[in-house]
Amino acid sequence: MSLDAQTARGFVLLPRLLGPAETAAAARSAESVLARVTAKALDGTDDAAVWPDGHRLEKVDGTTVHWEPDARPPAVRSLSPVTHLDPVLDALWTDERITAPMRRIVGRDDLGRFTSKLNFKRAGVGSEFRWHQDYPYWYCCAGPDARDVATAMVFLDDVTADNGALQIVPGSHLAGPAPRDRAEPTGLLVDTARTDVRGAVTVEAPAGSVLMFPGLIVHRSGPNRTARDRRSLLLCYQPAGRPELAGLPYRPERLDDLP
Questions:
Q1: β strands within 122-200, DSSP E
Q2: DSSP string covering 195-237, please?
Q3: What pLDDT shows up at residue 75?
Q4: Do residues 115 and 81 make contact, with C-beta atoms less than 8 angstroms apart?
Q5: Could you tell me whether strands 166-168 and 219-221 are parallel, antiparallel, or unpaired per DSSP bridges?
Q6: What are phi and psi of 210, to 5 degrees?
Q7: Based on C-alpha coordinates, what's the Rg of the chain?
Q8: How far is CA 93 from CA 4, 58, 165, in A?
Q9: pLDDT values of the chain reduced to their tens digit, one per residue, 259 residues
Q10: Distance, CA of 208 to CA of 23 (rounded, Å)
Q11: Which residues of 203-232 are buried (b: 16+ CB within 10 A; e: fewer)?
Q12: Are the beta carbons of 232 and 118 closer than 8 angstroms?
């Protein structure tokens, strides 16, 4: 399928975009960053907060550690932003294999950074992420500019349905902001009673592949109940010249603007 045809569906999958050695190097960097950050977090010298859904977040070295809610021993769900902590990860921002298709998705020649994230769906403990769009959270920070943000998700491990692959509803970005589940504590998740997710596809791909999608695409990921980790690096781009997510305040009252 051509890039234009994939973009019309709302997502682009580029299999094995990174070679095995590059992917392995990025995975080593991810683990190195995680080890350094969590060592400080577990020392108790950090800035911690608990979200309305009970998830614990801690700020360390300019990144937010999002802990798995029920994992024992403790396990990290994500770190964000993260590329400033490692040069191997940081270099991927300007990799032409990623930026060339991303320019077409964002619709601008000059790309800027919005945020980055490392997702860790650890073997046996990685939790699900219910149906959502990235857009509502980003809208609370960036306002209408959030429409121009798109993500390149670099798979550091083979991704399968069993270890928590993304499920995406093709074309769902064309409908704009989806109705939100008003009974859910954060107010950020999609109300599936008012949103058709029956046409969802599961995106399975080998390590080194890159999945690209805009913030308005409806997607979810299941839990990882396998013996294999499912790690990924997310690079979120926007038009150049705009402030990055880390420099923007979170204003939950903006959710009142959305369905």
A1: 129-132, 150-155, 166-168
A2: S--TT-EE--B-TT-EEEEETT--EEE----SSS-EEEEEEEE
A3: 86
A4: yes
A5: antiparallel
A6: -130, 130
A7: 17
A8: 22, 25, 23
A9: 777 767 778 899 999 999 999 999 999 999 999 999 988 877 765 577 777 766 778 888 899 998 888 777 888 999 999 999 999 999 999 999 999 999 999 999 999 999 999 999 999 999 999 999 999 999 999 999 999 999 999 999 999 999 999 999 999 999 999 999 999 989 999 999 999 999 999 999 999 999 999 999 999 999 999 999 999 999 999 999 999 999 999 999 999 999 9
A10: 5
A11: bbbebbbbbbbbbbbbbbbbebebebbbbb
A12: yes
Separation of CA 148 from chain center = 15
Q: From CA 187, how far away is CA 137, in angstroms rounded?
A: 9
List CB contacts of 216: < 8 A, sequence separation 6 or more.
Answer: 10, 133, 135, 147, 172, 173, 175, 176, 177
Alpha carbon separation from 160 to 149, 223, 230 (Å, rounded): 26, 11, 9
Query: How is residue 123 written in tokens?
Result: 């073997």
**Exposure of 240 in the CB half-sphere (CA atoms within 13 A):** 9
C-alpha separations of 216 from 104, 157, 173, 220, 245 in Å: 16, 25, 5, 13, 17
Widest distance between CA atoms in the chain: 50
Place of tokens 């994500």: 78
Do residues 75 and 67 lie in contact, with contact meaning Cβ atoms separated by under 8 Å? yes
Token pair in block for residue 78: 């994500």
* Residue 157 to residue 209: CA distance in whole angstroms: 9
Written as one letter, the residue type at 252 is P
Which tokens sit at 168?
């995406």
Phi then psi for residue 73, to 5 deg, are -70, 170
